[in-house]
Amino acid sequence: MATPTSLPATFVAGNVLTAAQMNDLRGAFRILQVVNDYDTSTISTSSTSLVASNASVTITPSAATSKILLIGSVYACRSNTVDADVYFALDRDGTTVSAETRFTEARTNARNSVTFVYLDSPASTSALAYTLEWRVSSGTGTVENAHSITALEISA
Questions:
Q1: 71, 61 in Cβ contact below 8 A?
Q2: Could you state, in order of their start, the residue ranges of all structural domains in the chain?
Q3: Helix, strand, or coil here: 80?
Q4: Which of 88, 98, 140, 146 has the greatest number of beta carbons closer than 10 A?
Q5: What is the chain's pLDDT, residue by residue, as a tens digit (156 residues)?
């Protein structure tokens, strides 16, 4: 079975795929494994630099061409400072790999949920540790009740 390096032009153009083109795509872009960590502790920080939360997962890709789809979720975050921002990002083995997702509120102790998605291309078959990181712009931020990270290995 051939694994395509790109989608057929007819697919990109929005036309119907032929049976042969569909056969070429069979087996590509499958979810190979899923790992998840869910933490229910309440954590706080006054750090203006990213720090690790209690949610982390380790996944070992089966091929160097695999992508890792990461989904992060925070049930309730808040800041005790008016107009202070709470930021979230994803870390892989000690290096921040995603852009920061910001929660901001114009009032003190406003609670909000945050969800974000990031597609990583680690080009590795070694065990990879992903951690949900966070920081505040000022004051103290708190994550209450639940925060999680899910990693899905996607075949190329």
A1: no
A2: 30-154
A3: coil
A4: 88
A5: 444 444 444 444 455 666 676 666 566 678 999 999 988 888 888 999 999 988 999 999 999 999 999 998 888 777 777 777 888 899 999 999 998 888 776 667 777 788 889 999 999 999 999 999 999 888 888 888 788 999 999 987
